[in-house]
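LAB NOTEBOOK - FOLDING QUEUE
OPERATOR: T.R.
BATCH SIZE: 2
PURPOSE: Compare the predicted structure-token outputs for two unrelated chains run back to back under identical settings.
PRIORITY: normal
REVIEWER: second-year student, initials M.K.

ITEM 1
FIELD SEQUENCE / FIELD STRUCTURE:
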Amino acid sequence: MDEKKRIEQLRSQLNRFGVEYYEQDAPTVSDETYDTLMQELIALEEKHPEMYDALSPTQRVGGKVLDGFTKVKHAKKMLSMGDVFSFEELRAWCKNVEDSIGPCVYSVEQKIDGLAMSVTYHNGRFYQAVTRGDGTIGEDVTENVKTIRSLPMEIDFKEDLEIRGEVYMPISSFEALNQRQKEEGKNEFANPRNAAAGSIRQLDTRVAASRNLDALWYYVPDAMGFGFENHSDSVAWLKELGFHVNPYNRVCKNVDEIISFIEEVNTMRDSLPYGIDGMVIKVDSLAQEEELGYTVKTPKWCIAYKFKAEEAITLLKDIVLTVGRTGKITPNAVLEPVQLAGTVVSAASLHNEDLILEKDVRVNDYVIVHKAGDIIPEVIQPVVEKRDGTQVPYVFPTVCPVCGSKIYRFEDEAAHYCMNLDCEARVVTSIAHFASRDAMNIDGLGEKRVEQFHKMGLLETVEDIYRLKDKQEEILALEKFGMKSYQNLIQAIEVSKRNSLEKVLFGLGIRQVGSKAASVLAKHFKTMDALKHASIEELVGIEDIGLITAETIVTWFKDERNLQLIDALSELGLNLSYIGVETKESIFTDKTCVLTGSLQHYTRKEAQAVLEGLGAKVSGSVSKKTDFVIYGEEAGSKLEKAKKLGVNTLTEEQFLAIVSEVG
């Protein structure tokens, strides 16, 4: 074939493969094939410089060293938005909007924590990328933005087009970058936003290309000129043209729907593959946007709801210990109440003695706290400069704070344990755990109810749950506990007797035996009696059961009180055998599968149950031993790793099709 024609053919192929990989998440060739074709194209373009094309796939891997960044004036100002920090302020903003223009609907989207960017296309071809700058004048960063592989270089729209969005660094890319920085002895980046901004301003485009940036596009400045009536319709159009848009967009009819959506997104923040620092609320009607207009600094038709600060400083007033169902003793910080991420925080787990010593946290310290994953309060570090001499290093107690028994620390663990089976704290938490949803699933028997029944003398041990049917008079004497509540509780208790062995095993609270290990053990041994007589060697021979777990299980079954408990549960009518589920033959049979991303048709647990019903083993991490990675929207590092390792990947739709075929 003529070499010039081959260049055109390779460009066409590589562009198509790029769309499949970066935009559709459905690659049809291996990375090796893609790289081989790319190297062939690079060689041919070097041989034929007259065939240079700025939008060739070879120009997206960097290679230019820039002298600097040219200043560019925006055709339409890139104004920043106003902020609100509470739902009360948001309600007030919506009221002001509707007082001005009447009833309206709103388009709500995540506020990506990245770098605002404007890109333009001429005659369907990518032309220029410009930073926000001061809103009037930005910098031309075209060559660096060109390295963002999800950004289409050509689109099926021949009129001049400007779109705006956010360039960001995915969390997986950020972690990999900081690891490289660390290995090379360089300073690590503080956060993904700083890393993205620094990458975009690299004069060596190869550096920008190596940072694996991405972008989401959310605004068409001239949407009305293209015939759109609503902002949401213009974003849908961008998606049709091949641009990445945020899937978590929603049109809301009123402020209550907006708040509900914000709360929904807030719960998923920790699982997103990128950082967000709030939500953006826009009037959806473009005509109403125009009617509202602008202030000198901000548009009147949109607002950013900012999530609360993730860190705060407060006083650590005390360190107290709690005792869990296995006897594990957890130190907890008692904090001067402080507002953090929308809630008042007054306590945080300090996990164990080693962590306290490592962080040198002391009573009367002022400490920096945040919410790990924006959910769990955590003490980050003390503010040493605020110490006044009243703070002394914490000495971990030697006895249980509840029963006074001596506490122990196992050689292979960081935690301390109370070994007294009669410890009141252990009794309450162990009974509540046995009744919990993931164990025996006895509705109406939560920890507060268990504690109440324990104080009444109705629940001293786990088996007492199944004797509550004989305590009707005492239970009905409780305030707000009527006959219907009693009947529902007793029915839930009776139903729980039919649970499969793994539920009982998990409910017993054997140290090191979580729900997954309980399931593995139940499937292998089938009956409690068989497990009871298992040796350490036999247990270690089971996949997913390690030596520590095996030793713990054998030790647990040597305790006469535990054996008496098992006998009592059997006499009370509990099933102590593995019921299991019928598995169907499929391509997943005896294969290891990993689930990642946001699934639309199943919860993660439901999808796992489906796979297990098809004979698969479901793992939480990707390795060379993984057979399939099934991914939903916004899949992150696990999907990327699967592609690098050559693991088979399936979209949720492909997974559903296979499940449907199996029946």
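ITEM 2
FIELD SEQUENCE / FIELD STRUCTURE:
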Amino acid sequence: MTTQQTLNGEQLRYLSLLSEKYPTIAAAASEIIRIEALLRLPKGTEHFMSDLHGEHEAFVHILNSASGVIREKIDLLFADTVPARERADLATLIYYPEEKLPELKDRQDDLKAWYSTTLLRLVELCRLVSSKHTRAHVRKCLPESCAHILDELLHAHFEDHDKQLYYNEIVQSIIRYDRADAYIVRLCQLIKRLAVDQLHIVGDLFDRGPRPDRILDQLMEYHNVDIQWGNHDVVWMGAAAGSDICILTVLKTTLSYNNLEMLETGYGISLRTLDQMAERVYGNSDVTLWRPHGGSQERWEEIARMHKAVTIMMFKVEAQVIARNPDFQMQGRDYLNQIDYRQAVLLPSRGTSEAALLPAGQSPSLYENGTVLCGGKRYPLRDTDFPTVDPACPSALTDEEVEVLDDLVRGFRQSEKLQRHIRFLYAQGTVYSCCNGNLLYHGAVPMTEEGDFAAETFEGRSYQGKALFDYCDCRARQGYFAPEGSPERQAGQDFLWYLWCGSLSPIFGRSAMTTFERLYIADKSTHAEVKNPYYSHINGPHAEETAEKILAEFGLTEESSHIFNGHVPVRAIEGESPVKGGGKLVVIDGGFCRAYHSKTGIAGYTLIYSSRGLTLRTHQPFESTEKAIRDDEDIDSQSERIYTAPQRVLVRDTDEGKREEARIADLERLVWAYQNGILHEVGN
């Protein structure tokens, strides 16, 4: 700036506030120098995961190992000097320090010598992973109780003989005063903290796997994480907000996969009233179709009855949501309204020998040869037992179902842990994210067969591309944060359900969620969930052009920009590649969920973005944490470099770098204001 330039009122107010933190030219100049040094460092490592689906143990292992980054660092440092068994021990110790440490200690003949060797190896490894960070940043990561000693150890100059003696004495003092265990644990935690700068979860933490609640507990403790919501996440967000349809939807999935421990133990939500109603209504019913997919089968009939009760209630409430939301374009998918009850041969409920024995006014509950209209054709129903459905008003809940649903809503709303997790998802999550030149979203950018962005009309306005994503994000937040009882809150909760299963939901990306068809119609042609044309375009002859078009829509035009998304498992077993869009798009859903392993042939992809480029990790199934700790068994993974940066990426090239350069400009204006007497230094 020159002396001829002036500051407007807003700029002057901002500089006045900035001067409180930097009251002198020297203070402002020192901060500029610090930032300029930071900008010259290599960018931190980013770690990408997707579609965790409650597989807590595999998630924790991959998180602890940074998808193999930590083991690579160990081998880089010690491959020529440390035996392979000891390197494996060291890796497991870093992943699970509190669990592995007692076992390693029990093996030692000379515990003090082992302590000394292990501490020095951990310090050396910590020095390596901290090399991309400023000393000030590393200090902030140190635990307060031992920060000074660790800082001394990490910045030792071991080439100096006298210094080496000094640092060896520090290590011996740590051992002598019984602090070795504590320092080993702290160093292991610090290595994991410094190995990864930022964690990205590209959707679907919930459902199928056993403990998504434990994944969220872990994420809430992580130092830097962002989340792009998946359709399995948004429906849980709606459930926590108190949405009837979302609660019934997540319960149907939970019961289907026999994950009651997560619900009852993890979130403290009781299913007692549901269980009682299901026993009374479906106690004599054939519930084979509702048998859960996994878990212990000891209680399968009890769980199946609850599963059926919830499913029927869900179909009733779905019909109500579809009726009040014509924008969703889901007319005809209210299947209880599409059953032709009149053409059926009516029979009494199970356990009653003759229809004449029915109480006055009670509708028969079994419909032999009942049919349903689906896609313009009629199909016979696989199950015609509907004891709670009134053919005159199929979407109406019975009084008992209303009571059960009210109890479930209270359970979800009053679960403190669930509410804490969902607030975290809202705080750290979005429908999409642009980060360091890359675009992250879970599902798809809805497109037409011709390759244009598909438009959908909501509330009288048309949205497509980025505008559709922004609109979905806004409506998703209304469902949780709009005032209680307001039309906006109800509409937002309905929209969260639409994001779960709507045909142009960018989080779902398919024509329909065919839950009813798979349960009730034998003809498998009705079960297909047709993928949005987006998926054919990113695999087609103009795939790279499509990816670049999507990136440009979100304002990303750099040669290095990529798209990362999940949602659709990559069938590696059939030779499918996760790298699509002419190399510009990477699908990192390879099947964390055990239910997908037979279809994908692997147990998930993760992605590492370092200052050197992008590395894709392909993981094989993880057996258990117990086996990993006992046998030093790491996840078998393969690495593939899919993008190499033309030159090393520095902090100045990142989003953080752009923010820091803006701070430099502000500080330079502050220095100019001091130099020209517009503001006065304090203390000079």
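REVIEWER COMMENT (ITEM 2): The first strand starts at residue 46 and ends at 49.
FOLLOW-UP: none requested
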